[in-house]
Amino acid sequence: MGSVSKDVSRRGFVKGASLASLAALATAGTTAMFGCTPRSMSETGTDEPQNAVALPDRENLPNEEVIWHRCASCGSTCPLQFHVSDGTIQWVECDTTGDKDFGGIEFRSCLRGRSIRRWINHPDRLKKPLKRVEGTKRGEGQYEEIEWDEAIDLFYEKLKYTLDTYGNEAVMRCTSLGTEDNATVGSWFDRLMNLLGGQLGTYGTDSQTQLDFAASNRLFSSFITQPGGFLSNISWMGSPAPVALDADLVVLFGSSAATSRLQGAMSMYDWAQMREKGTRIVCIDVRMGEEESAHPDEWMPIRPGTDGALASAINYVLITEGFADEDQIRSCCTGYDEETLPESAKGQHASYKDYLLGTGYDMVAKTPEWASPITRIPVDDIYQLARDIGNAERCFIAQGLGVQRRANGELNSASIMMIPFISGHWGLPGTSTGLKTAPSGGPACNEYTVNSGVLPLGENPVKASIPVTKRIEVIERGHEFTALRDGVHNVDKLNADVKFVYAYMTACLTNQTPDVNWSAKVLEDESKAEFIVGSDFFLTNSMMYCDLILPDVMPQETYQLAAVTSSGRNIASVFGRPVQERPFDVRSEWDWMVDLADRFGLKDAFTEGYEYEQIVRANYDALVASSTFPTLPATFDEGLELGLWHTEATPEPSLAAFRADPAANPLNTPSGKMEIYCEGLAQAAATWEFDDEYDFISPIPMYAPGFNSYEDCTEEYPLLGSTWKSKIRFQSKFNQIDVLNQACRHVVWINPLDAETRGIQTGDMVRIFNDVGEIHIEARVTPRMVPGAFALENGRMRKLDENGVDVGGCANTLVPHHWAPLSKFNCNNSIIAQIAKL
Ligand SMILES: Nc1nc2c(c(=O)[nH]1)N[C@H]1C(S)=C(S)[C@@H](COP(=O)(O)OP(=O)(O)OC[C@H]3O[C@@H](n4cnc5c(=O)[nH]c(N)nc54)[C@H](O)[C@@H]3O)O[C@H]1N2
Ligand SMILES: Nc1nc2c(c(=O)[nH]1)N[C@H]1C(S)=C(S)[C@@H](COP(=O)(O)OP(=O)(O)OC[C@H]3O[C@@H](n4cnc5c(=O)[nH]c(N)nc54)[C@H](O)[C@@H]3O)O[C@H]1N2
Ligand code: SF4
Ligand SMILES: [Mo]
After folding, report:
1. Which of 458, 447, 450 is nearest to 193 (CA)?
2. pLDDT for residue 637
3. What is the model's pLDDT at position 441?
4. Whole-number Å distance between alpha carbons of 813 and 555
5. What is the predicted pLDDT for the residue at 25?
6. Residue 799: which of 760, 759, 741, 754 has the closest Cα?
7. Less Cβ crowding at N or C end of the chain, within 10 Å?
């Protein structure tokens, strides 16, 4: 790691420590402060301080305080109680204040939240600003520590140069969700850039934008006919999971709540309650995940990327066997049949029913016999599932985000959305919309808000906005970007390549974004992005492509009100104050942006005289003044006394009002109805430009294989690869925690049939390779993976060996950079590769 020393002063921790605890540390070694050795962890399996000498009695820690804060590691945002003594976190407890009965609510955290002390006080945490060593290449990871003044000078000099030389459109904050934490998504950089004339805008997230586009165009608005953009977060407009307690059948497509919604009050718990009740659950997935692992009869294996074919066949059976109430469909939907098509599409056999029955489009009936060889689901099973949906009194149909994270994701996701509308299972108790289950979360604020509060980030004077996934491509060929080819919003074309990147809170330079080898190549070229500033807590692989790295404070070292997520039965937030002093020389983004604003002569305009802590309190006051929750504490300080705040909620089925009276409660689409046939999409299909014949847009939901489908498998690359979320990481966060890595090994799942022909056994090291990259990884041979395919967890940190092979095992080393046709979003699950024993 070049010239970075790991031994710099840990004054942040040590300063507050008493002599007694220092003495204890001297005997114990520093592991007590920063976590523990893997061995001691495996012995105890807890998050207790590990050394016997330093281990304080949990009941009697010297000067112990319990400070509420939260885990900022996934959308669940669990409240945590930090037991702090002498300025150091000693141990961490989850919510213990809730109802312990089955069916009660307690926001219990997962193994990551319970390991958070090891993350916050990890010895590898960045300690001072880092500057790339002169003469070394980006990606080599050679850095020297510098003082903050020098760091801000450099930041200022390069930003000023870029603005003067290339203009504001050449500057971009490279964003990603970073931390899906409901309180800190945003950046003070935006406020400063807005004062400086703006920067290139970005839209969407790497999570769900394919589904957002699929749903917002049909169900809630239309980005083409109603300018102003697609609606983000439409994906979540399913019913909350507890609504499914009124269902007799639950059908889930690519949803792995037992991995991705682990917290005690999230949907995984609702599914457990349904099982207790005897509700039948069907999980359609390419692998048997944790959700259904104890209930193997619930798993319906499907060939990756073919959900659109299954959904079409289900809808075919529903219609042809009389399960579809056509009058009801006509009253709420356009484009179902000839009668309900918009004028522009009449007389062309362009309806959804034409597609399904084989009287339009490809003229093929979408029978189970048609879908079976595509999906590899037996014909009888498709008939049975369709009839079960048709016969169910109440059927709850939902999808996770795995289906849409592939090349034909928009079409597959939209096809799934049609099942509730054709079967009539929507807008009623026990039903959903085929979208993701809606979570609920309480109010949130911290030192900044996006467009309210005392210091809003403001309006971006640069109107041009690109899909956030094109963050690397815009460095390479931004000047060629157009609205019709690249999804540029608000203007017809861009004028410049991006030359200055501010990579704050992201692993999307070279880890979480598709085709990381290509990304690295673009980023290595200093004639393209001339200066890259990054900020993180660790020297991640993405940070190694930055010229300057700024060490940030952890969320737990700040004041904030964070929204705790639940599956809809209550609404909660947690008040947090710093659980410990800021360690080393880390500073907050506010601190360094104030200094940067000062260099531009804009300090007063930027701060308007506010100090950090005042802003949080003022934002809280503004929030209370506009809040509809009467029980919220009156002041932030009262909130800090309370810690965890929550109130009950009643989960309602999505679209209930529209279902009850579609004329009185129209949707926000041009027709006011659910647009199965979307004129905006027909217009896009006719005018947008594509380089690849696979990429096309359809006005109705349909199955199309898309780029890198099973049809593209060859002898050279015969296997379909896909990814899922890891229990031990949030995306690439927590890679640094050894005990978690031991708890859940990084392995590739491969079916025994595919393993046998390759001589692979569980525990063998294998290489997975294709034209864009190669990774080395351990194999797990398991019938929980469909044959002809493999899957691995996403988020493992990329790490190259001397041959350029990713021995870290980052899934995105294998994903080409090919974007979804409509949204232009990430297709991380569209992998074709070969596996061989090493
Ligand atoms: N193959 C594959 N790729 C995927 C996915 C997949 O399923 N498969 N999933 C996609 C999805 S859903 C998403 S959301 C993206 C996630 O992509 P990212 O949001 O880029 O992923 P993270 O790994 O969470 O990276 C966040 C980085 O920000 C740092 N960070 C967190 N909080 C802070 C903070 O307060 N300040 C600073 N300075 N740094 C902070 C963390 O340490 C971490 O290194 O990945 C996408 N990529
Ligand atoms: N533990 C943990 N929890 C997390 C995260 C994390 O990193 N770790 N990340 C958070 C974030 S940012 C997000 S966006 C959410 C996402 O949460 P989820 O929507 O649950 O996302 P994924 O795990 O990407 O995909 C869900 C399932 O889709 C399956 N799948 C993949 N391809 C297909 C397909 O073609 N058809 C079908 N039917 N299934 C398929 C996968 O095998 C997986 O089981 O999770 C959040 N929660
Ligand atoms: S469920 Fe999410 S927020 Fe809760 S402890 Fe786990 S990682 Fe943290
Ligand atoms: Mo995500």
Report:
1. 458
2. 96
3. 86
4. 30
5. 31
6. 741
7. C
Provide the b/e sequence for 380-397 (b: ≥16 CB within 10 Å).
Answer: eebbebbebbbebebbbb
Contact 730 CB / ligand 3 (< 6 Å): yes
Instruction: Report the alpha-carbon distance of residue 681 to residue 696 in Å, rounded.
Output: 10
Residue-level pLDDT at 691: 87
Report yes or no: 759 and 209 within 8 Å, Cβ to Cβ. Answer: no
Tell which residue, 98, 92, 6, 95, has the closest CA to residue 48: 92
User: What spacing in Å lies between the alpha carbon of 507 and ligand 4's midpoint?
Assistant: 12
**Which residue type occupies 19?**
L
**Dihedral sign from CA coordinates of 21, 23, 26, 29:** negative
Rg (CA), the chain: 27
The two three-digit tokens of residue 407, written as one number = 């090349």
Ligand nearest to the CA of 70: 3
Return the pLDDT at 233: 66
Question: What is the predicted pLDDT for the residue at 179?
Answer: 58
DSSP three-state, residue 566 = strand
Centre of ligand 3 from the C-alpha of residue 240, in Å: 19
pLDDT for 105 equals: 80
Residue 200 DSSP SS3: coil
The pLDDT assigned to 627 comes to 85
pLDDT given at position 1:
32
CA distance 39 to 51: 11
Q: Which residues of the chain are modeled with pLDDT < 70?
A: 1-61, 103, 178-185, 221-233, 450-451
Rounded-to-integer distance, Cα 633 and Cα 172, Å: 38
The token duo for 674 is 């659910």
Closest CA to 735 of 470, 522, 543: 543
Distance between the two ends of the chain, CA-based, in angstroms?
28
Q: How far is the CA of 71 from the centre of ligand 1 (A)?
A: 15
Confidence (pLDDT) at 72:
80
Rounded to the nearest whole angstrom, what is the distance from the C-alpha of residue 176 to the centroid of ligand 3?
A: 19
H helix or E strand, kind and range, residue 181: none
Helix (H, G, I), strand (E, B) or coil at 365: coil
pLDDT given at position 175:
83
Q: Look up the pTM and report it.
A: 0.92
Q: What is the pLDDT of residue 755?
A: 98
d(CA 299, CA 345): 39
How is the beta sheet containing 560-566 ordered, strand by strand? Answer: 440-441, 560-566, 570-576, 644-648
For ligand 3, say whether the CB of 110 is within 6 Å of any of its atoms: yes
Provide the angle, in degrees to the nearest 10, between the axes of the packed helices 307-320 and 368-375.
160
* DSSP tag of 58: G
Positive or negative CA dihedral for 40, 44, 47, 51?
Answer: negative
Atom of ligand 1 at shortest range from CA of 731: 23
Measured CA to CA, the distance from residue 777 to residue 122 in angstroms comes to: 25
Cβ neighbour number for residue 46 with a 10 Å cutoff: 11
